[in-house]
Amino acid sequence: MTHHEHHHELPTAGRELTAVSISATLHCLTGCAIGEVLGMILGAAFGWSNLASIVVSVLLAFFFGYLLTIRPVLAAGVYDFLTGLRIVKRRAEWHGR
C-alpha cells in the first residue's frame, strides 16, 4: 500500500468540511488552553515576572494550538506536515488570529 492510499482527499465543502473545521477549531482551543495554563504554571514554579509568564504562556499557546490543530487536518487527507501547517496558518489568518 502506498503512502497516498492511506489518505483520502481533504473535503472542500459540505458536512465533511464542517466536521474537519469544527474538529480543528476545538483542537486549537484545547492546545491554546494547555499552553496558557502550562506557561502560568512554569512562571509560578520558577518565580518569573508577570511579563515573562505571559510571554511564555502566549508562545506555548501558539505552539500547542498549532500542534493540536494540525492533527485533524492531517487525518482529513492532507498528505504532509508542511502542507497541513500552511492550511492551519491560512485558517488562523482568516479568523483574525
Structural write-up:
- By secondary structure, the chain is an all-alpha fold.
- The protein has one domain.
- The protein is 75% helix and 0% strand.
- The chain is built from 3 helices and no strands.
- Helix 1 packs antiparallel against helix 2 and helix 2 packs across helix 3.
- The longest helix is centred in the N-terminal third of the chain and has 33 residues.
- The N terminus is likely disordered.
Keywords:
0% strand, mainly alpha, elongated, single chain, disordered N terminus, 97 residues, 3 helices, 75% helix
Percent in strands: under 5%
Name the poorly predicted regions: 1-7
Total beta strands:
0
Mean pLDDT: 79
Principal-axes geometry comes out as elongated
**How many individual helices?**
3
In helices, the fraction of residues equals over 70%
Radius of gyration: 16 Å
The end-to-end span amounts to 39 Å
